[in-house]
Design a protein that fits this description.
Length: about 170
């Protein structure tokens, strides 16, 4: 891609990136609120399970107590991991929905096609992606600006920030 082409696409890229970041921040804030509620519930249930295990364990021998605690710990961990997966899946769904909405705006497909052709050349074959957006291919190279791929990259770009959703 020539410097002139890159300069011409810079405002479009900057606008898309700014919008994606703003959308991701809104979704991240909403997901944090959901995460807090989900984790509070999961932790309360885990405390209940641990309390029941502790009461049952006192009546049993020392080995039985240890076994029940381990069982309860695993159950609590399973609940916590399930809650984390639900939170992550919800964040991914919201980001995907936000990207799909952004890609549905008038003129957005033309922007995506321009970006693909700028990357792969004017002769690139461009196709609509299954859930919105576009993909391009030329000379064995592929550019995927489909909704799913862009959403995946946006969530991946959050990196360790995603863990903040379920870290108190």
């Amino acid at each position: 891609m020539t410097a002139r082409q890159q300069d011409a696409l810079a405002p479009v890229r900057a606008a898309l990136l700014t919008r994606a970041r703003a959308d991701a921040e809104r979704e991240l804030a909403a997901a944090r609120l959901d995460a807090d509620a989900t984790l509070a519930s999961a932790r309360a249930e885990a405390r209940t399970i641990l309390g029941k295990a502790a009461r049952a364990g006192r009546a049993d021998a020392v080995s039985s107590i240890a076994a029940e605690h381990e069982k309860a710990r695993r159950a609590a961990r399973r609940l916590e991991l399930n809650a984390q997966r639900e939170i992550y899946d919800e964040l991914h769904r919201r980001v995907t929905d936000a990207v799909a909405l952004a890609f549905a705006e008038p003129g957005r497909r033309d922007d995506l096609v321009s970006m693909i052709r700028a990357e792969l050349g004017a002769g690139a074959t461009v196709r609509d992606a299954a859930r919105g957006g576009a993909t391009g291919e030329a000379a064995g190279r592929v550019v995927d600006l489909g909704v799913e791929a862009v959403a995946d990259r946006a969530v991946d770009a959050l990196g360790d920030e995603v863990r903040a959703l379920w870290t108190p």
